[in-house]
């Protein structure tokens, strides 16, 4: 597959007179895809039922006329003002019970069936007009589900739907009471319609209640997306895509992805470092203008899995953004590096957000490839360079990775509901495991808990996985379970069957409390105390003699949260690691990509790789 | 008195088939008391008016059949779901005006008279059935009043009741206006029904208004508890108990205690260190897995006073809990140490919470004496050891302490309302005084401001006491007043009568601002400037020459908040201190208890006391 | 002009029997002005329509009888309780949608026309009775507009008024849509009555929407004040004053000031250091008991401008206050120093708040010149000393300053709405520029953006000014624009006309990220990258070679936020600085004032100036 470049474009933001020149410059830059109509509902249907597609027809004509392939969007992330008049109760409700009002975007509750029907209606209308149009090569549904904390809604619509969901899942109310352990504090219900949403309680609600509500909330996103997908399936054969946002965990992306053809995500390395990375201040300072060296790769590998092999970067940061607490500029070379890194992980398309910086509204300080004055911004030059380099490098083919990591959304919901320690964060735990694998030189596949097989890997890590699937205990791969893996049931209870091995007890530890593991690192955040059987083999113990890593029945159990050094020790024990220092290495069928996120020269097998630069090797030779 | 051990048990959480074995194991462990039915309302009255006592009868039969003494509880901390249908307005309302909903516990407003009547009704029903049952040896009313911030409620019921309370207290509205100084910002009322609850105002409401509301809120708890106590008095002669929670200050425990026979409290040393101790990070790290060395003792001494000599630990932490920000395990020996420390301070019973860890609901990560798999947890072994040791040591008799400390709930409310410095915290001030007394080797009585006499002590400390009772100025004990003592009236005004000695002015100091006191420590947080009369004697001055401790008319005035070193200096000046370093010493009629909260060996008069261990001396010999 | 002293007095707080002695002591202290009736509405009109002026007549009689000049206040900051019965919807509404209730002060929404009419009515009633009374020498309207965040209100009254304001400003809804760029996220309106207030949205509302609402909110304050001012104009010829509070930025003081005769402000140096100064902990520790050495001077210069030359300190801190997080006492000499500093900057009157500390209500811990026991507090002595010194020094005449600084409220609203970096704070930026000018020995004028001319200054700084007025580009003064100056339009868009020079891109930087500027300091918080033309002259570059200060078309462009050292470097390049170290120097027609805010001796041209002391020079000789 030869990767391609794209760009996000909003013709409705600009004078028609500019469209042709814009299209010409896109082509000149080496861009082949253009995404449009994402937020344009007020221009497509300014009055309910009255469509004004003419301007869009014209824009498509100009763009496609220059040879660009169009990604058409359903504009459902931005319902227009008249929709609120029609459905005043369509707004989501926050945890404090306040409606989240009109005036920005994503102002809808996933449980509102009236708005869901409207979303289907606009998707149908677009499908009817453009579904068979050969200039439209792909469709995007909505934009960034879950962004701005929009999955969870405490609306009355959500409450009614949740009660029905419970009735469906549990059949009768006694089953629910038993499953949740409602006897605990006399919370037993006699009817499904007594079940409120789990907020505003005096102290913590029943975690089983909370987890059920999170499962339900995720299911509502899936159902909402499916409704649009089904509408479009009737109208088009082009692939359907959603653009997920980084580190959004409130809905199951694998579930949504099952109804779509391609997964895509929006990659903002510097924004994410600022606003959603758990890391030390020193680490954040080191990578302030580059982004974390594993955060993007993690998402690339995740969405390759969500997309069943097919995935894009739908929005690529091209310069400073506007929405993080602090917004420095990427160092020179980083836009190119990010693009190449996505390609190394299998991206079919990397699409920059956005063509030209808007001089108005919320994102006016968000860079584009062009400035508001229509002057090329630094990102433009780097995009053009990548386009030239792609032409030079040619096709890239993915292969099965050395190692695998299990990632499970419901596990995140479980530990968010029952953290036991104030900073126990599933995403952080998994990302730290991923980082350790990358430091060990491994190329990684990320797999859902529902993967049919985990066979054929050097090692499979499954930290913090709420339940252990049989496929994971019956694989030929070396499997590492823990910390916390398999310690709760799907109903968020401690398993009491004999077959579930469990620690004697678990401890959460405050941030500054580190427990030494014999010069091999430290236990941080979390430690379990296991009764290690005589038949088991302890591989690593802490200074107090507690088993930190042990083998039992052919599986490895990690009984603690390791710091960086301890992770390296652990992987060193399990596999033949090839430590890469500050570099990151990804191997495909024919190429080796070596990426330098630091701002200093690094050396890789005798080759110098400059700061913010990468090398590509093929057949033992450096070809870039 | 020979102390005993108990345990908290929830038969309704377990299969009936397990009850007999549980009872047998309790007895085997050396446990003699078992508390039941605390949260079982939904099982005792699943439908309004329809009681199902049969299961409880059976549980009592089994437990008592094994020789255990039963503590019966009224389950009013967990009103069942149907109660909310009956009284939708029974929920408390938070400071933002939001009802605090059903779904956890303590979901009731103390001012709701309908729910109060229901509480009396269930207490009566239980009293009728079990009041004269000789197997029931004591009663617990409700559970942990005030836990989860549940004393203060801004409901309409609270508002109406507060207006009535004001009418009762002040008689006519002009008296209230004058008492509160409402002229200040034209807040004068013309009718009691104009008085709102003091929240959601533009800036601080009148502190007199806020203090009155806090007095009222405390009175509502007392009235609520009294209603249940009166109902049970008719039905039983067994002692009535409430289990107070650590560091709950929003109601006057002495007032509630006056209607009961025994005070008890729930002691969670490691949880409290994490979530409600004011201390440095270094101190918290040192005692992370032991708890603060004075926090428990303080509460023991407090509840001995609240219980007029009779008190229990109703819930004793047996392992890691689930509700603190971080939940590490107790170090080996600590469960035993905590139990012995309570006994040293006069506990009649120490009862572990809970028998077996629940595998479901909110507290599933809270350790019990048994794991959910029914395997003994570490706490079990230590409890059994204490039982054997009690048998060996025999009776322990309390005696009047060397020194006294005055503790007053209304003072806390006064300074919370009028802190003047962002971190001025009455509890912290008093606990630091208590710590200083303990470091000086003193055995301490804690007394309410209403104590008839303060006579017969080497020293009586009264820091931060809002008003000074006559009994405190007319005692033969050495009394230390201050800082801030006697500087406001009951209506939270500065006293203007000539007889109230007052500082010229007072200063609150930011955390890092310390004022040196001539190599004898520092003033922190608070300093007063007094016009020391010629007839007074200045004992300690700061480097700027200001009196920090002086004697006036035979009383000592402490004009500042001392740091640890300065406290030691001050007590060294006033009494013959016997500094105990990191050890804590408590003297009873015949025994000396020496407690080592550190994790290292300590030495006491030539005896080595290991980390997390204690020694008991009798007639000069170590007997444990 | 010979400066005078005043005091704030509340006769209604005290027994009538005390008034005469109070007046006599005021006069004895050297006080000539007394402000009364500020919060007395409940005593002036206890029942709607029923006025009780008799007590006030009597108080005026006694005060004026002792020779004091009276400042009469309208008591509209404290509407009495019956007003709420009349207009339950007059309360302001906070950002969460909660009414801000009765029980403290400032409990009104500026958009409520019913309350506005009531305010006019009480002003008229006072005007009728006292407007021509020769004992009343000035009037104060309301108290501290905007204190306690009271400018912005999300009430329904505000919403309706805002819709009308928008209709007025934009004429038709399409113009508004275009101006705001509402197409961006399909936020286009079809009617003005669809426009909600910009709060509770899912993510950030349109910044143009937010800025419009802030402009509107400021206009409401102006209109409210104007209504009272007009009512009083008919009744009196005495000057009208408002007492602004320090660092209140939510309304345009120049707009309000245009309707008044004298500007005054309430100066609480130690309170402000604690609660509203952006500075390092070390700086705050150094000046803990003195206040920041520039914060007061900045406000003095600002209000001299707002008052078109005539200004007072209406409330001067006399000792510890009650409302800051921590409230230490001023060091000896500071009350005198603050008073003299105000005089140096041109204050006609410095009036202490308050005469006697109230022993009740919210501010009972706020010092007065007398303690509640009627004993002179330390501030009293210093006030008396200033009175004697004024008599000795005689008249002081202001002159045009060396340098000017542009200050613009709408710029603050713009950057608050669109900060781009979490700590980008306009006030801080401007105050740091002011501090740099003062460190360079400059006497400074603060000018509004509407100033007719900026001519005749050595240098004019305009940091963070949202738009650049023509008068600023057409002056004979050296003008420094930036950072961020002129980078947005009045509708908060990026200017796209060719004539607006703009950076290529801008970066916000996290607090610990500093960029070195060749041993001359650092760039912090903000940096712009400009395409410096060949015809421009780069004066200072950072280590990476980026222009930090450059000259273009005769104007200086500052492309970054400088730290203290870099500011000093910059000013050193532009003017002949006379660095004053820790001292501050202000030059008037005939005098030089040298102020020492430190607690240590400093030296000025061979003269020793003690800590917390000042020197006054005239004709080269030290006269104080
Ligand atoms: Zn996006
Ligand atoms: Zn409890
Ligand atoms: Zn004031």
From TrEMBL, chains A, B, C:
Describe the location of the Glycoside hydrolase family 42 N-terminal domain by residue ranges.
8-392
Q: Which residues form the active site?
A: 144, 315
The UniProt record lists the EC number as 3.2.1.23
Q: Where does substrate bind?
A: 105, 143, 323
Q: Which GO terms describe its biological process?
A: carbohydrate metabolic process
Q: Which reaction does it catalyse?
A: Hydrolysis of terminal non-reducing beta-D-galactose residues in beta-D-galactosides
By its UniProt entry, which InterPro entries does this protein fall under? Beta_galactosidase_Trimer (IPR013738), Class_I_gatase-like (IPR029062), GH (IPR017853), Glyco_hydro_42 (IPR003476), Glyco_hydro_42_N (IPR013529)
Gene Ontology MF terms in the entry: beta-galactosidase activity; metal ion binding
| Annotated signal peptide | none
Q: Which residues bind Zn(2+)?
A: 109
List every stretch annotated Disordered.
490-514
UniProt superkingdom = Bacteria
Q: Where is the Beta-galactosidase trimerisation domain?
A: 401-499
Name the UniProt key words of this record, in alphabetical order. Glycosidase, Hydrolase, Metal-binding, Zinc
Gene Ontology cellular component terms for the protein in this record? beta-galactosidase complex
Q: Name one Pfam family in it.
A: Glyco_hydro_42
Q: Where is the composition biased (Polar residues)?
A: 496-507
Q: Which PANTHER family match?
A: BETA-GALACTOSIDASE GANA (PTHR36447), BETA-GALACTOSIDASE YESZ (PTHR36447:SF2)
Q: Which family does it belong to?
A: Belongs to the glycosyl hydrolase 42 family.
This protein is called beta-galactosidase
* Organism, as annotated: Ascidiaceihabitans donghaensis
């Amino acid at each position: 597959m030869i990767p391609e470049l794209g760009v996000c474009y909003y013709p409705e933001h600009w004078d028609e007179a500019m469209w042709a020149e814009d299209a010409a410059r896109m082509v000149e830059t080496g861009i082949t895809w253009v995404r449009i109509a994402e937020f344009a509902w007020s221009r497509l249907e300014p009055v309910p039922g009255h469509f004004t597609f003419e301007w869009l027809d014209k824009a498509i004509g100009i763009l496609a006329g220059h040879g660009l392939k169009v990604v058409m969007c359903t504009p459902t992330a931005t319902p227009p003002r008249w929709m609120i008049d029609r459905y005043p109760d369509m707004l989501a409700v926050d945890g404090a019970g306040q409606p989240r009002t009109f005036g920005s975007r994503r102002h809808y509750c996933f449980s509102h069936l009236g708005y869901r029907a409207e979303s289907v209606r606009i998707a149908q209308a677009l499908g009817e007009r453009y579904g068979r149009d050969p200039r439209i090569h792909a469709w995007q549904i909505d934009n960034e589900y879950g962004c701005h904390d929009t999955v969870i809604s405490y609306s009355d619509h959500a409450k009614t739907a949740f009660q029905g969901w419970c009735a469906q899942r549990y059949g009768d109310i006694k089953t629910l009471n038993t499953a949740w352990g409602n006897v605990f504090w006399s919370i037993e219900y006699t009817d499904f319609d007594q079940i409120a949403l789990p907020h505003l309680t005096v102290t913590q609600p029943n975690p089983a209640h909370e987890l059920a509500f999170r499962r339900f909330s995720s299911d509502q996103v899936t159902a909402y997306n499916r409704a649009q997908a089904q509408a479009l399936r009737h109208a088009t054969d082009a692939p359907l895509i959603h653009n997920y946002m980084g580190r959004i965990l409130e809905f199951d992306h694998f579930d949504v992805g099952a109804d779509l053809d391609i997964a895509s995500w929006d990659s903002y390395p510097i924004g994410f470092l600022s606003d959603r990375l758990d890391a030390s201040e020193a680490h954040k300072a080191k990578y302030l203008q580059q982004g974390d060296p594993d955060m993007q790769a993690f998402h690339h590998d995740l969405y390759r899995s969500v997309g069943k092999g097919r995935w894009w970067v739908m929005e690529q940061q091209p310069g400073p953004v506007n929405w993080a607490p602090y917004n420095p500029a990427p160092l020179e070379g980083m836009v190119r590096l990010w693009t190449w890194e996505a390609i190394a992980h299998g991206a079919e398309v990397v699409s920059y957000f956005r063509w030209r910086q808007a001089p108005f509204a919320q994102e006016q300080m968000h860079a584009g490839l062009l400035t508001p004055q229509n002057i090329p911004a630094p990102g433009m030059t780097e995009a053009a360079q990548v386009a030239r380099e792609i032409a030079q490098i040619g096709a890239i083919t993915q292969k099965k990775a050395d190692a695998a990591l299990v990632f499970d959304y419901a596990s995140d919901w479980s530990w968010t509901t029952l953290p036991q320690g104030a900073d126990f964060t599933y995403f952080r735990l998994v990302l730290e495991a991923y980082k350790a694998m990358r430091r060990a030189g491994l190329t990684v596949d990320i797999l859902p808990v529902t993967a049919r097989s985990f066979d054929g890997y050097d090692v499979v890590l499954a930290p913090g996985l709420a339940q252990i699937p049989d496929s994971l205990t019956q694989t030929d791969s070396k499997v590492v379970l823990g910390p916390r893996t398999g310690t709760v049931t799907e109903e968020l209870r401690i398993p009491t069957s004999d077959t579930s091995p469990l620690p004697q007890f678990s401890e959460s530890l405050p941030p500054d409390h580190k427990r030494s593991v014999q010069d091999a690192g430290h236990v941080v955040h979390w430690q379990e105390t296991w009764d290690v059987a005589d038949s088991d083999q302890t591989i690593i113990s802490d200074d107090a003699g507690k088993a930190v890593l042990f083998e039992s029945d052919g599986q490895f159990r990690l009984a603690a949260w390791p710091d960086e050094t301890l992770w390296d020790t652990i992987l060193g024990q399990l596999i033949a690691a090839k430590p890469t220092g500050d570099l990151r290495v990804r191997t495909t069928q024919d190429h080796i990509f070596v990426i330098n996120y630091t701002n200093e020269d690094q050396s890789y097998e005798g080759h110098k790789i400059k700061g913010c630069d990468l090398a590509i090797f093929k057949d033992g030779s450096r070809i870039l």
